[in-house]
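Why predict the complex rather than its parts? Because the way molecules touch one another can change local conformation, and only a joint prediction can capture that. The input here totals 767 residues.
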Amino acid sequence: MGAWFSENGLLVGLAALDGLSYAAAVFMVAVGLNLVFGVLRVLNIAHGSLYAIGGYSAASLGLFLSSRGLPEFLAYPALVVAAALVGALLGPPIERLLLRRMQDHEPVLQLLVTFALFMILEDLQKLLWGVQPVVSDAPVRLLGTVDIPFGADVIPFNAYQLYVLPGIALATLVGLAWFLRKTLAGRMIVAVTTDREAARAMGIDAAKVTLLTFTAGAALAALGGALASPTVSLVPGVGAQTIVLSFAVVATAGLGQIEGAAIAALLIGLGRSFAVYLEPELEVVIPYVIMLAVLLVRPQGLFGVAETRRI
Amino acid sequence: MQKVTPGAALAPAVPSSTISRRGALQAALGIGSLALTGRSASAQGAGQKPAEIKVGIATFLSGSSSVFGVPGKQAAELLFDQLNEQGGIAGVKLRPIFIDEGPGVDHFTGEYRRLVQSENVQLIFAGISSADCLACAPLSEEMKRPTILWDCGTQRVFEEGKYSYAYRTQANATPEVLAPLLYLLKSKPDFRSVAVMNQDYAWGRDSWDIFRTGLNALKPGVRVAAELFPRFGATDFSTEVTRLLALRPDVIFSTTWGGELDAFIRQSADRKLFERSTFVIPLAESSLERVGKALPAGHIIGARGDHWFLHPSPRDPALLAKFTEDYRKRFNVYPIYSTHHMFQAVSAMKAAYEKAMAAKGGAWPNDAELAAAFRGLTFPSLTSSVTIREDGQGLENQLIGTSMHTDKYNFAVMTDMMSFPAEMITTPVGQKSIDWLKTLKPDMLDKLPATVPYKP
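Output of the joint prediction:
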């Protein structure tokens, strides 16, 4: 084991850096999904579309600013502005007009409704952005690369992926944890998550909390897409790819668990990264192997709480 | 099978006064036969000139492959419009009916049957997906409907089956991968290690098999540094790029395409991977305009055929220039290889009708006669010509070049181009590609064509 590490230690370090960056990107999407599930108890498949629309909107805004000859650094605030706009414009109508009406229906029906919404939003993307890949990579280019020593060699990493993505993911995690635990609005969300009826009985406007939570979740999905947009090419289907992985993170974490989502994203990110280095054939399957392994031991997820079933 | 003519099938169904039991039975049988075979008045063996030629076109209108499918559809719309403005084929106008390959092969086969049975199309162009081509070649036999495999790459279709109604109007995966390999061996013969970074699905795996088998035959002993097959549809290749940076293979082979290739090129460029390894990217032509200057000079790129809007020696320069201009004017981008493949399918269809009619002294051909006309057919492409062999496979040259930058375009173009003769790089009739590739000898490299530089 020691000999293996002395031989492969540097590679493990590289894999860890890659895994961290990947985990940050995955967490940004999964945390919104988890938050929404906690309050609404709906597994929102359209979350993937919100991710994609956030990405497309951020790329379009970045390209627009660049075409107007404005300073390139404006591409960074453009990421956040685009995500906020998507969350604000799409979140409330989806919650008020669709999900609220489905609140008392069977979970499978809710799932189908969000799936239908996902299909509609996928077509909307094609209508607005076409099918050709869309890229706006100014945020990555502006920060350049950082050379990480690798024996006698160096490996260039994008500073954006090395610092910005994990930094924002960490800030989101800490900020969200603080908000949920230390602010009145956050505690109201936790109350509705824990017991909707009891929260309402204590005077909390559960409908308003639900609306705000869904809007925040939608904005987080859009932010995930916006932050990923400088590093990827946005194409039709990107939302579907993302939502599947996000489900794996959420299921591994335990539904409704914010910190759990961070740990699960880290596990899956590192697992996938190590697979690329050690056994590339396992890269595709490793997130789901981790999910399966966790669910076999803890069916409620890493941090989920087993619910008492009334009989 | 008994030939069903429209009169025989439908006459009993419209009696003048009373309906006899026998008449009703005959009518039912007639309609049943019609439904089973998909025959209609416009597609009968009698060879009557139809009011219009309906062509079913399968292409990707959704999902990641729509980066090729939608340009293919746009090219079809442009070409059908132009053909109709010129009077159609022998005075018969054409109408394309598009179907989406996006939902998968089961949906596609259902749509294929619908096109034949309900839409009564005379021909079908199918498709981009190799799985769809493998499924529709037997269907074309069953339904007796001429089918042009207009873009799919799998070499297996005509190596594993014999068909009289299915034909491919371009090359297949074997020449498309062998040509860049030969170009690599000729232009950078001293490489000692290679890595692959392909999408994890049939094309990614098959193209690597072809490349590796050819490499083992032509330059044994090259070390395979890594075999990376990220998930189909992945958008982040950071980990793969890091791995390749650390391994420093001399050559990186990638048949990745679409948004994934764009992302791989950009991520590799950002992190200086292009400075460490020579890339061999057989499908890069379709990404050139989108990735701009991110693709540096000095890397090997292909176009899935002998076509490119800046082809160094087109057969008819005015034709290529007109198509490029018309397409760009209408869709605001340069045409990519799938538009050339669509041109070839339309060109082959027109040539086959003309050949079949000439053989009948000007009379309209029936389905079997039209299908037979494709065999041995030589038809013009936008840059040269393509011949369909006796097994149904198109013989098309392959244009490969090295990327370079010029002030005229804000994206990389090709220089030092070789147009590989189709006969040299296509698996002979009756042989399997992998078996044939194993028989290649290094002296093959002495017979390669000369390179042609980029001409501004």
